[in-house]
Write a structure and sequence with these properties.
Blueprint: H1 2-28, E1 41-49, E2 52-56, E3 59-62, E4 68-70, E5 74-77, E6 82-87, E7 92-95, E8 99-102, H2 103-107, H3 116-130, H4 141-148, H5 164-170, E9 178-181, E10 185-189, E11 198-204, E12 210-216, E13 220-224, E14 235-243, E15 248-250, E16 254-258, H6 261-278, H7 282-294, H8 298-311, H9 316-328
Parallel strand pairs: 9-16
Antiparallel strand pairs: 1-4, 1-6, 2-3, 2-5, 5-8, 6-7, 10-13, 11-12, 11-14, 14-15, 14-16
Helix pairs in contact: 3-7, 6-7, 7-8, 8-9
């Protein structure tokens, strides 16, 4: 009887164990039917040069601008290739080193908190990279102008007796009609004229008194406004004349307005934030270009777009961004 009673007790204990252990097991151990972790978008592709692939659970695919990258994917960069990405926070990232990297690991470099300034202009750059991507500007000029919202400005026409240099200058917009200026040391860039041997850059105050003049054979010149006799001036005039072997032709002067007061403080604060988040990257220069352009700082914007295009000459995305900007401000018509 004792043996049977003991066996009965063991049976009761076994039955209790059968009830208890499975409850712990189901709570702690995943089964084959457990749902997979949800996909999370982490990056958008802004620009690519060369061959860059994305490795998904379903296979390996060639990446292109505009694509989204998720937490369960990896990126493979081949030698001599480049990719720029926009994180969901608005921050940007560039990759050039050959090899494979996890998208989740790349995202780990950034906080998930959005940066309102960076995110806004990075999204603009991302949107622009998707528009008219494969179109040739000369063949699709009218459509291109409609997309960018640019307006062509009429230029004066030279008479039939005009020289080649006069005709070139009459039909070429060297600079935007006006621009605000934020950066004290600024580089002015203009379009090259085939007949010009050199150019003379002149800056004058509102009383038409010359405060700066320099001749150059280049199509760009840096000017330090902090060293000019323009103390407390709200604006000045910039003039460029083109010189050939036999003549000098003056282009129309443009007005430069200096950013001042509360507007200066606001822009300085936002530029400081953009530099902290994007400085040192080529795509960051394009973001600066978009920021400056929106604030009518066309000279500053031109420099940012031009520097990005020069830094990645084989990447057509950056040259396209520069060309689109020139069309929007009326400097490019072909």
């Amino acid at each position: 009887m004792k043996i049977l009673q003991n066996l009965g007790l063991i049976g009761l204990l076994s039955a209790a164990t059968v009830v208890f252990i499975p409850q712990q097991g189901f709570a702690q151990t995943p089964t084959a039917e457990s749902p997979a972790a949800p996909q999370e978008e982490l990056f958008k592709v802004i620009s690519i040069r060369g061959m860059v692939s994305v490795i998904k659970p379903s296979g390996k695919f060639i990446l292109a601008s505009g694509k989204k990258l998720y937490n369960d994917e990896s990126i493979e960069v081949t030698p001599n290739s480049y990719i720029s990405l926009m994180h969901l926070s608005g921050r940007v990232l560039e990759l050039r080193t050959p090899g494979k990297q996890s998208v989740s690991d790349l995202a780990g470099r950034f906080a998930k908190v959005s940066s309102s300034v960076s995110e806004r202009y990075a999204n603009f750059v991302f949107g622009e990279s998707l528009k008219e991507k494969d179109k040739d500007m000369k063949k699709n000029h009218q459509q291109y102008m409609a997309v960018t919202g640019a307006v062509t400005r009429s230029t004066s026409r030279a008479n039939s007796a005009a020289t080649a240099l006069q005709r070139e200058l009459a039909n070429t917009i060297l600079l935007p009609a006006s621009s605000d200026v934020f950066v004290a040391q600024n580089t002015f860039r203009w379009r090259k004229l085939p007949s010009a041997k050199s150019y003379v850059v002149t800056i004058s105050d509102m009383f038409d008194q010359t405060v700066f003049q320099k001749e150059t054979s280049d199509t760009a010149l840096m000017v330090d406004f902090g060293k000019l006799a323009l103390k407390n001036a709200k604006m000045c005039l910039l003039g460029i004349s083109a010189k050939s072997a036999t003549e000098e032709v003056q282009a129309a002067k443009i007005g430069l307005r200096f950013v001042q007061g509360e507007n200066f403080n606001k822009i300085q604060k936002e530029v400081t934030q953009l530099k902290a988040e994007n400085d040192g990257t080529i795509i960051g220069k394009v973001i600066f270009g978009a920021y400056y352009e929106e604030h009518h700082l066309y000279i500053d914007a031109m420099n940012s777009y031009a520097e990005a295009a020069a830094a990645e000459p084989e990447n057509t995305d950056f040259q396209t961004a520069y060309n689109k900007f020139l069309v929007r401000i009326g400097m490019l018509e072909e």
